[in-house]
UniProtKB/TrEMBL annotation:
It is a multi-pass membrane protein. Core subunit of the mitochondrial membrane respiratory chain NADH dehydrogenase (Complex I) which catalyzes electron transfer from NADH through the respiratory chain, using ubiquinone as an electron acceptor. Essential for the catalytic activity and assembly of complex I. The keyword Coiled coil does not apply. One of its GO terms (molecular function) is NADH dehydrogenase activity. This is NADH-ubiquinone oxidoreductase chain 4. The keyword Transmembrane applies. Keywords: Electron transport, Membrane, Mitochondrion, NAD, Respiratory chain, Transmembrane, Transmembrane helix, Transport, Ubiquinone. The chain crosses the membrane at residues 6-27, 39-58, 87-112, 119-139, 145-165, 177-199, 219-244, 251-272, 284-303, 315-336, 342-364, 376-397, 417-441, 462-482. GO terms for cellular component: mitochondrial membrane. It is an enzyme of class 7 (translocase). The gene is ND4. Residues 143-430 form the NADH:quinone oxidoreductase/Mrp antiporter transmembrane domain. Pfam families: Proton_antipo_M. Its EC number is 7.1.1.2.
Length: 496
């Protein structure tokens, strides 16, 4: 399986080169953009198939499976920074599901943007391939310095996607907010990585995990603060969330799907990887602050969502509330809580992407995102309304949905750790039901609105995408054991 594992990192660059060549040929011959869309979809589906093969062949023991070893220095004896050694990439039971989520979200982004990206689609699909490559690297690299480089590199193609293919005139301001907030947080993280290198003389992740107890508490405190700020901006959680609503409102549908589906999960993934395994004393020392920030994020995010009048901003602020629960369960440092937080991120990645696709379809039909103009869509758009109701139920963690498994495990862990914390976390579920059911009841039921003159339901392509996402959402809620066992095995390996 080594050649399949190595091919995973080579497919996105090959796709980008192919897009560049085909795009130049199309411009010279004045052809349409359909061919490059099909090529982009082909490469993304090949990557998805390869990831599924890797998942089926993964060792369930939880340890890292070697993916690729690159001795880019020419050997230790010739290396300028020989302490770093070769760059090692690996997959375990945690990263494999984030890789699968990435491989699934990318073709969904292409299909849902099929009619949106016209003649200038070459650059868009090249940026999409670069994002996919960097995300694969983030979830597989076993060096924290290279993790930072790839983590930060995602900013550049996403900045272009937001700024060039955004939906309105404020797109550059949204891209500016997105770039500046995440860049400032990540620079602090880079300084902390230099501190770790100065203490240990290495940035190898597995080595740092094995010697984490030798770092003095004072250093762990400062390093944890820097890493937490960088990850909190990415998640994002209160009060580092200001860029999120602006980015989502102005982003094209593919940008919103990428942001909600996978990029917002980088912060949670980074906290799970870097906090307790590398900085156990620092994480334990700041546990009360993490709990406070997480609980404020849950309550504040939910209450702010309740007062939104823009459908995209409503879905964006709901993400802040859900990610607050991830922060709370991270503090518990037990297998149940960490498993629940990972499951929330994976399930929320699909459900939030589904919701953004649905509200974008609504905007494409009626050219407004204000909730007050919508009413009675179950009459004029019955298929859309049915899928929206199912997605809303999944978002509020109804039993048999993937979100229910994640939130149940997370709240159970919070109650075991502290009953009062568990009550606050459960209160967030109630608030989630309030704003979700208000929204879906307002737009789907009642008499048809006079503002919606020519309503048109979802087409076949949109229906296929939405159906697949709904099926996956409820499948991982009905049959979660195939994921939970692999995730828990890897968490045992990290928590030891």
């Amino acid at each position: 399986m080594n050649w399949i594992l190595s091919l995973l990192l080579y497919l996105p660059p090959l796709a980008a080169v192919c897009h560049l060549l085909i795009g130049g040929y199309q411009r010279e011959n004045k052809l349409g953009g359909t061919s490059i869309k099909r090529i982009a979809l082909f490469w993304s589906l090949i990557s998805l198939i390869g990831v599924i093969i890797i998942w089926l062949s993964l060792d369930e023991g939880g340890d890292f499976t070697p993916l690729l070893i690159i001795d880019w220095t020419g050997g230790p004896e010739k290396a300028l920074f020989y302490q770093w050694g070769p760059l090692v990439f690996g997959i375990d039971g945690i990263s494999i599901f984030f890789i699968i989520l990435t491989a699934f979200i990318v073709p969904c982004s292409i299909l849902i943007s099929w009619n949106s990206i016209k003649y200038f689609s070459t650059g868009f699909f090249i940026c999409l391939a670069i994002v996919q490559l960097l995300l694969y690297g983030v979830f597989t690299v076993l060096d924290i310095l290279l993790f930072y480089i790839l983590f930060e590199g995602v900013l550049i193609p996403m900045y272009l996607i937001l700024g060039i293919w955004g939906s309105r005139e404020e797109k550059w301001q949204a891209a500016y907010y997105f770039f500046c907030y995440t860049l400032i947080g990540s620079i602090i993280m880079l300084l902390c990585i230099f501190v770790m290198y100065n203490v240990h003389g290495t940035t190898d992740y597995l080595l740092l995990v094995s010697i984490s107890d030798t770092v003095p508490l004072n250093i762990q405190r400062w390093v944890f603060i820097g890493i937490f700020i960088a990850m909190a901006v990415k998640i994002p959680i209160f009060p580092f969330h200001i860029w999120l609503p602006k980015a989502h409102v102005e982003a094209p549908v593919a940008g919103s799907v990428l942001l909600a589906g996978i990029l917002l999960k980088l912060g949670g993934y980074g906290l799970i990887r870097l906090s307790w395994p590398i900085l156990p004393l620092g994480t334990h020392n700041f546990a009360p602050i993490l709990l406070t920030v997480g609980l404020i994020g849950i309550i504040y995010g939910s209450l702010t969502t309740c007062r939104q009048i823009d459908v995209k901003r409503l879905v964006a602020y709901s993400s802040v509330a859900h990610m607050g629960l991830v922060t709370v369960t991270l503090v518990t440092h037990d297998i149940i809580g960490l498993t629940g937080s990972i499951y929330i991120m994976l399930a929320h990645g699909i459900v939030s992407s589904l919701l953004f696709i649905l509200v974008t379809i609504l905007y494409d039909r009626h050219h407004t995102r204000l909730i007050k103009y919508y009413r009675g869509l179950s009459i004029s758009m019955p298929i859309w309304a049915t899928i929206m109701i199912m997605a809303t139920l999944a978002n509020v963690a109804v039993p048999s949905s993937g979100n229910f498994i994640g939130e149940y495990l997370s709240i159970l862990s919070a109650f075991s750790w502290n009953p009062l914390i568990g009550c606050f976390a459960a209160f967030g579920v109630i608030l989630s039901a309030i704003y979700s059911f208000y929204f879906v009841n307002r737009v789907t039921f009642g008499a048809s609105s006079n503002y919606l003159v020519y309503p048109r339901d979802v087409n076949r392509r949109e229906f296929n995408i939405l159906s697949i996402m709904i099926f996956i959402t409820f499948f991982i809620g009905i049959y979660p054991s195939f994921m939970l066992e692999i995730i828990q095995n890897s968490l045992f390996y990290l928590v030891q």
